[in-house]
Structure formats: structure tokens, C-alpha cells
Amino acid sequence: MIFFLTMMIDSYFSSLRWQDIADIALNSYILFRLFVLFRGTNVLRIITGMAIIWLMQWIAAAIGLIITIWVLQALTAVTALIIIIVFRNEIRRVLQTKNIRALLWDIPRPTVSTTVGIVAETAFELAQKRIGALMIFPVREDLSNAIHSGIAWDGLVSREMLLNIFWKSAPVHDGACVIHGKRVTQVGCILPLSLQKKLPSHYGTRHRAALGLSEQTDALVVVISEERGAVLVANHGTISRIRNETELVRLMDKRGGLQKKSVFFKKERWQLTLAAIVSVLLITGIWFNFTGGLDTIKTIEAPIEYMDRNPELEILNTSVVAVKLQLSGSDTLIKALQPDSVGVRLDLSEALEGANSFTLTEQNIKLPPGIVLKKMEPSVVEVMLDIIVTKELPIQVDWVGQMPPGLILKEATTKPQKIRVKGGKQVLKSILTLYTEQVSLNNISKSGKLTATLAINPALLAPVSPSENKVTVIYTVAKRK
Q: d(Cα 134, Cα 221) in Å, to the nearest integer?
């Protein structure tokens, strides 16, 4: 069994062309891009469900469950409609990207709400609303001997929680909160005041408390001034104002090392790698399914396209105008076969004047990938070529019909009376006169002139001057005696 499976896989991969590899790689990348663009949305979940339905449909087809195949096909069609209608907003948002890079190869990074990011954002929101706050971030030293009257708390850091702790009506809003890692551990804490004498007069109790704790411990303290709406940080006995969120995040990262993005991004890399592997395996499986199905035979007629003919030679006759091709391939590829995707090309660059015989080979046949030529008929094509020459021929009007009673056409001449034409030597040898298209006598009642077009088959002859394809006919009408 293992030997048979190995031989089958080897036969598949040995027949791989570079077009097949490019086909698998391109569609794998498209599937991977769909995952990247739609991950985290309901669209991706629905697409995953469609993939599962398609897999079940393939299994049902393999074991011959006709009704199950019909039901699963209907489900697939309905699911595709649901994606387009229900999730049109998500699809529009993804497709309306600002640049082509975001759509084709950029991998967007999801925003990571870390403790430092939440604290920085909330701190400046509190400052904008003029709500005072004190937030303590221990580093290494124990703070139990430096802070007092704290109330035990155990909650995950969030914007809403910090806003509620320091809201003016909250019972603990005057105290400080202690944040360990991602959790608030104490609220309503009382801090030691700084004994420095040269502090600015506008510094209130919060500023002095933050400075006092930073003098006694290695903790970092974030202060939000209620009166001035400013954000400050006390650290190692100094206090400084922070201008924006980025500056606060950088300072807290450097001092406390509170953001833990590396684990998240490592997990994301694994997720993207797994998605890429699954995309390649899935598309490869679909390719094997398309090319490994039972072969279907189809016979079509393909017209012959003559290429690189010497411009001095003209094709006078061919033994056939189309070739019957017997083609083989999977049922899906045969059904999708388009007439313009199959053709027969014959190179006439080495053809000579007279009769030429060409044997058709697979190199003369243009086929789409996955389609195999089984048989062609006929395999030999005869082509008669002739040298293009010029010849001056007289012009004769091709009159039809009858003149009105009592009238006769006395005389008719053409201007010009002769023209030079070009065509095959053998064709021109048998032509002595050029005729115009039929001109009716029925409506001619008096002398005059008219314009007539030459009756020339453009495939055989052509005027040397393209403007000479029409002539002026001057005629004289007389009464019948």
C-alpha cells in the first residue's frame, strides 16, 4: 500500500510543469491574503464553513452520494450569497484600502491593548476631564511600609475601571491605586508626603505624595493634576511633566517593562505560518483533485492559423481549413474548455512557391494546461502558395436588366479604362478583364455617369493603389430607331 501510494505521488509530481507550480503558488497566496485581510471577522468564519462544506461535497462525490452532493452544492451557493449580502460592509471595508500595498502584501498588525497603553490613554483622558488621580507602579522594592490604608482590590486594568476609581463621587478617588502587572491590587492608598522645600507653589497634595513615595522607593508614580489638567511622572525623587501618550508609554516601558507584546507577536507569527501552510496544502489538494479525476475525452475542430508567411507569396488553396483534435483531461477542465483556448498554428516561414506539405505535431497545437492531445486528423496539411505579381487589366461594366422601352445604351466607357492589380501569378494568368459590380439598366433613361465598385475578391486580387477600387462609368443613351 505504501509503495503504491509512493508511486502515485511520484507520478503526480514528475508530471508537474512550471505552470502548475505557478498556479498552485498564486492561488495559495490569494487564499493566504484572504485569511490575512478577513481574519477576526465573521466573513472568515463563513469562508471556513464553505471550505468544510466543499470538502464534504468532495467526499460525497468520491463515494457516490448523489442527494448529499446536491444538498451540499445548494448550501455552497446559498452561503456565497450570504457572504455577499450580509457581510457587504466588512468586504467593502477590506477592499477600500488606502493603497495597493495593504491589499496585496502588507500584513496589518492588530492593535494590542497593553497595560501601559491603557494607562497612558486613560491618564490623558482624566487630565482632559480635570479629574485628579494617582497611579503607582512598583518595580522591585516592597511598598507595604511606605503606603497606608489601602483597600485590597483585584481587577484587570481597563479604561472603565480607572475612570470609576478616580471619579469625583467614588469613595476612594482621593487615594492612590497600585497596579501590579495587568491588575489593580489596591485602591485608596495614602502616600508619604515629600519634605522638599523648593517645590512650585501650585503643587498640591497629590504632587507631594507622588514625589514622597518616589523618594522612599523605586516605584514609578503617575500624577494627574486636577487644577491644571496635566500629566506628571514622579521617579527617583524627581517629578516631570509628560506632554503626550507616546512619551508616557516610552518612559513606563523603560522604567517598568510592563508591556508584554513579544508573546503576542510570537503567537501571531505561528498563526500566519500555519495559515500559509494550510493554504498551500489546500490548494495543492484542489489541484490534485482537478488533475487526478477520471479523464474525459472530447473531440473539437480547431481552425488552422498560418503564421510567418513570406509577404511575396499568397495562399491559393489548402487541403483542409480545420483539424479534428481528440482531447483528454479531467471532467472539470474539459467542461471549462473554451473554443478560443485551443488552436492549430502552422509556420510558413520556410514554405516555397507551389505545393507544400506539412506534418502536424504537438508543437503545432495550442492547448490550455491540464489538457492532453490524444489524436489529430488529418496529420498532414497541403498548402498551395503563389508569387505575388502585378498586371494591368481592362475594365468592363457588368450591365444587368433592361433599358426602358424605346431607349438603347449607345456607348459606355470607364474612367480609368485600365488599372494595375496585384495577386498570385497563377490567378492573374487566367484573368483577362476586370468587371465592376452589377449595374442595373432598369432606371437609366438618359445619358450620364455613375460610380461603380470593382468586383474584386480581396483574398485573390487587390488594386496596386487602394483608391482605385472604384471607377466612373460614362454612358450615352439614345432612342431606339
A: 7
Mean pLDDT lowest among 54-68, 242-256, 388-402, 433-447:
54-68
For residue 266, give the 3-state DSSP assignment.
Answer: helix
C-alpha cell at 188: 485608596
Joined together, the cell numbers standing for residue 189 give 492608598
Q: Does the structure show a pLDDT above 50 at 257?
A: no
What CATH class has 295-378?
mainly beta
- Indicate the average pLDDT of the chain: 79
What are the sequence ranges of the domains in the chain? 14-108+265-291, 115-256, 295-378, 389-479
389-479, CATH topology level:
RNA Polymerase Alpha Subunit; Chain A, domain 2 (2.170.120)
> ∠ at Cα 256 (250, 260), nearest 5°?
80
Q: Using CB atoms within 10 A of its CB, is residue 19 exposed (0-12), middle (13-18) or buried (19+)?
A: exposed
pLDDT at 112 exceeding the cut of 60:
no
- For 423, half-sphere exposure in the C-beta direction (CA atoms, 13 angstrom radius) is 20
pLDDT tens digits for range 333-366: 677 777 778 888 988 888 888 889 998 888 888 8
**C-alpha cell belonging to residue 385:** 502558395
Residue 360 and residue 323 in contact, taking contact as beta carbons nearer than 8 Å: yes
CB 225 within 8 A of CB 207: yes
